[in-house]
Amino acid sequence: MTLTQERRVILFKPQGRIDLQGGMALSEKMVKVVPQSNQLWIIDLAAVDFMDSCGLVPLVKGLKAARQSGCRLVICNVQAPVRLILELTQLDSVFEIFNTYEEILSLVNHDTVILG
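That's the Anti-sigma factor antagonist sequence above. Prediction below.
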């Protein structure tokens, strides 16, 4: 895993269901990454077809950790069932949500580290 000294991108790509079990798995991956100032954390939800309230916990914790460390956390590729949960909880107004990963990269030029 190589990070440049300038700006860094950390990409999380959870899969399947983000419920209690999936949320804990995502939390474990996110906790292993020490947020550093000016990092960009991307959570790509393209392969996530279900999320419940337990799945929101790692997203909110990640956002809090990122903000406290001077990082930016964004979400992309949100499927309709997951978008509905974000809208019902009004978290769609809290998170920066992009349609695609490519859309994010077109706005920022970074080196990327992919974390499952």
